[in-house]
Amino acid sequence: MGKKKLSKGFDDLFSQNETDLSFLDAYGETNSEDVSGLPESSQNHKNSNELFNAIIRLFKSEKIEIKSTKKKISLGEFLLINKKNNQIEISIHSEKLSLPLVPSDLMAPGFTDSKLSKDSMKCSVIIDSWGIGSKNFISRMIEFYKLNY
Q1: Mean pLDDT, residues 123-147 taken together
Q2: Using CA atoms, how far apart are residues 66 and 55, in angstroms rounded to an integer?
Q3: Which end of the chain offers a freer environment for a tag, N or C, measured as fewer CB atoms within 10 Å?
Q4: Does the residue 8 lie in any domain?
Q5: Rounded mean pLDDT of the chain?
């Protein structure tokens, strides 16, 4: 009985996949931070006023009643947002359930100095630019709040 020969080698598979996926080039390069509906601060990392206003608009679009001043947004004892030094500081404290977060959720582009407690009941994030990651993060916290508070 002869040795069984592999029908295709690595080079053949690699070149096949290269050809099969060439249609992706038609879509061009993407910039996930430059998406319609997101404020221009996606590219300007130093405009905390714009970031702050985008967050307020997000809460309003979700019909969430917040308390806000020129530098603070609060959602009861659950969430506190401070505008400080061209950054947005967000602190979240859940008293009922663990937050629906894992450490990688706090590593999106535009996030700095993020912390999640071991029991997942508290987290803090500093946002220095607005983008899909920061919008999704705040949207998830709004959804969690709506469902549990």
Answers
A1: 93
A2: 11
A3: N
A4: no
A5: 81
Task: Compute the distance between CA of residue 126 and CA of residue 80 in angstroms, rounded to an integer.
Answer: 12
Give me the domain span that covers residue 101: 64-148
In a domain, 127, yes or no: yes
Question: Does 36 reside within a domain?
Answer: no
Residue 14 corresponds to which tokens in the numbers above? Answer: 């690699």
**By the 8 A CB rule, do 64 and 56 touch?**
no
The arrangement of strands across the sheet holding 122-127 comes to: 67-68, 72-75, 79-84, 87-93, 122-127, 111-116
Q: For 36-58, what is each residue's pLDDT tens digit?
A: 444 444 444 458 899 999 999 99
Domain count of the fold of the chain: 1
The pLDDT-based confidence of 9 (bands split at 50, 70, 90) is low
Question: 């969690």: which residue's tokens?
Answer: 144
What six digits make up the tokens of 11? 């080079």
What are the pLDDT digits (tens) for 62-73? 999 999 999 999
* b (16+ CB within 10 A) / e for 7-40: eeeeeeeeeeeeeeeeeeeeeeeeeebeeeebbe
